[in-house]
User: Which sequence fits this backbone?
């Protein structure tokens, strides 16, 4: 019996990714990343554990010295009743004061925004990877696609040379 408990404890200590915002890395240049906690209600965490979450159109703002996540869609818990939450409510993010002050200075001064990149469970707690991002122009996106295609062609050619295939 004791061994089973240890196995369960080890399995629970790992990270489980619930949702990623793949569009963010395409539309924005990520300058810095911050791991922060999310203040959730009971039915929200239960719905998260079911894997139901959408990061589309979500962003973070700094109001009165605190960071809030807006437009994060967590649907109502299927087994909940009158205790259910509203799906797109504003949620508070937990960061250190020095991190909030640093982010506030950078967001206020430039064309930077706070974008959620990933939501995951770490040691039983819901965490959010928040990115300080700068918007990309269309030509930047095209350059990234071109560079990715060139890197793919180079690695493909190196693979052929290693295997001795002449094409």
Assistant:
């Amino acid at each position: 019996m004791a061994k089973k408990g240890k196995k369960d404890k080890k399995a629970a200590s790992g990270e489980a990714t619930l949702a990623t915002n793949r569009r963010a890395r395409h539309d924005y240049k990520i300058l810095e990343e911050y791991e922060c906690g999310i203040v959730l209600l009971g039915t929200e965490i239960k719905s998260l554990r079911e894997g139901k979450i959408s990061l589309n159109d979500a962003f973070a703002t700094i109001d009165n010295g605190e960071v809030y996540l807006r437009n994060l869609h967590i649907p109502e818990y299927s087994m909940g009743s009158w205790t259910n939450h509203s799906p797109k409510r504003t949620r508070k993010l937990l960061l250190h004061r020095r991190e909030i002050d640093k982010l506030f200075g950078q967001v206020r001064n430039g064309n930077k925004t706070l974008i959620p990149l990933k939501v995951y469970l770490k040691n039983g707690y819901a965490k959010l990877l928040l990115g300080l991002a700068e918007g990309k122009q269309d030509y930047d996106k095209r350059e990234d696609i071109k560079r990715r295609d060139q890197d793919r062609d180079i690695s493909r050619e190196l693979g052929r040379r290693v295997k001795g295939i002449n094409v």
In short: Residues 137-167 form one domain. The radius of gyration is 20 Å. The mean pLDDT is 83.
